[in-house]
Amino acid sequence: MNEENNFCNLSLYISKIAKEDPRKIAIRYPIKMSDEGVIEYAYLNFIGLEDHINSYANGLKSIGVEPGMRVAFMIKPNLEFLPLIYALFKLGAVPVLIDPGMGKQNLLDCVKNTEPHVFIGIPKANLARLVYRKYFKSVKIVVTTGPEKLFSGHSLKGIFKSGSFPEAKTSVDDPAAIIFTTGSTGPPKGVCYTHGMFEAQRQAMIDSFGVSSDDIDMPAFALFSIFTLSIGCTIIIPEMDQTKPAEVDPKNIINAIMQNDVSFSFGSPALWNTVSLYCVENEVELPPLKRVIMAGAPIPAYLHKRMFDTILPGDSNIFTPYGATEALPVSCYTGVDVLQETAELTSQGNGYCVGPPIDGLEVIIIRVSDDIIEYIEDAEILQSGIGEIIVKGPNVSREYYKMADKTAEHKIYFDESKDVFWHRIGDLGFIDEEGRIWMCGRKTHRVVNGEETLYTVCCEAITNNHPAVFRSALVGLGANRYQQLPVLIVEPEPGQKIDIREVEELAKSHRITNCINHFLIHPSFPVDIRHNAKIFREQLAEWAAKELKIN
């Protein structure tokens, strides 16, 4: 933030770096690889990045894009991805960022609900815009990365207009972006980000993960690079389909790390599971890599151990931030801490420790409720035991875009002014005596059987101890939310067979799972697109009901 001018806009940092270190490489994008695995890159240094940002901002303004306009943004991670995002920030426009892998209908509904004024997209996205016109009625300005003649709009190349461009005078409370949730527990929701939220998240990267301008970052989730670029990191864009991290070619990740001395990388546990298995099988180490961030789902202890034992150098660490699109990060824990302090407790069904809250964020536990809680005085704050996790801080979103009902469900206000608010993150857990948060599962995924409540993360940890089980999923069957039949489903390790009787015996031997009487094997769990890690338990519940012939 520029305190002197009271601006708050990440583009200010790029301008500053471009003046102080203009020749430093900002972004590298792979264009081809030799047979020997050497990657050839196109690149922008920071002065070139600043020029691209200004040129796109000038061009967008010249075709009618104004501050506050919503911009449907459907560009794949490439050399122009970040310059365009930052051009929109600098202009004061509001990019609408939608995961392309959330499914066609969800994507179209997200576009329709946010009513974008502007559309910037690759040819495939523009073709979808023409085919499904009724969802794009609000769009008045179109920009394509392909030939403009094909899509009756402006080409990206055609709007590139060199020259300086002044930052929009955006403040902490001004809208900066609309970012959609994955939709793993219902329809995707558009989270309203402000420039102040982005600023707080940037600072958390520095304070919680130790990111500095000395780092070379390889983000396997493109949006993460928005923050690290503003810190002054060099961004190495990996060769991969970011909507399918589990299917990444490990050689592309390994070659990028080694060739560029990548010191820092964000990726889902699914990606690092794939890469680490390849490294173990081929005796590959990654000495440049000092810090890895894994997020999206609880990280199994075996993945931490595999990374430390065979891949990462001795002075490295793994960070496992906890949070949600609406509040990220909430807390942070490290792989070293997990293995030394909490992994054994997790395997016994205690929940998954996500560490203490980050600086500036407040976390409390309230009694579980499926009802709207308008004011905090109406919530019962728990001093012990499992309850609902709620958070308050500068990186927490105030509302969902044009979803007043969802905003009401997820926000709790301090008083009638509604200036101060808490976010119901949707997870259940507790805070231990050391101030660490333990996550026990999603509130909507808890199974209430009429006598007790079963928590997904806790119960699944028990059957995950079986050597042939890759992962487990607890689901509840039955229309009565508070009188459900618990079913535990397991997915085998690749190439392994499971005797379901052994899984049942394991579950029956533990107090928290001995009430479960139904067990099933599923060949491959449905998971979210963003991280390939969050299990779609609702889909599994439908499958289980059919398997067990339960209406």
Which secondary structure elements does this structure contain, and how are they paired or packed?
Blueprint: H1 11-20, E1 25-33, E2 39-45, H2 46-62, E3 70-74, H3 81-91, E4 94-97, H4 104-114, E5 118-121, H5 123-131, E6 141-144, H6 148-151, E7 154-155, E8 175-180, E9 190-194, H7 195-209, E10 216-219, H8 225-231, E11 234-236, H9 250-260, E12 264-267, H10 269-282, E13 291-294, H11 301-310, E14 317-319, E15 322-324, E16 327-331, H12 335-347, E17 352-355, E18 362-366, E19 387-392, H13 404-410, E20 411-413, E21 421-431, E22 437-442, E23 447-448, E24 453-454, H14 456-463, E25 469-477, E26 485-492, H15 500-508, E27 518-521, H16 537-547
Parallel strand pairs: 1-11, 3-4, 3-5, 4-8, 5-6, 6-7, 10-11, 10-12, 12-13, 13-14, 26-27
Antiparallel strand pairs: 1-2, 8-9, 15-16, 17-22, 18-19, 19-21, 20-21, 21-22, 23-24, 25-26
The helix fraction, in percent, is 25-40%
Structural class per helix/strand content? alpha/beta
Average per-residue pLDDT, rounded, comes to 94
Proportion of residues in β-strands? 15-25%
List how many beta strands DSSP finds. Answer: 27
Strand count, sense and barrel status of the largest sheet are: 7 strands, mixed
What is the CATH topology of the domain at 11-197?
A: Rossmann fold
DSSP helix count? Answer: 16
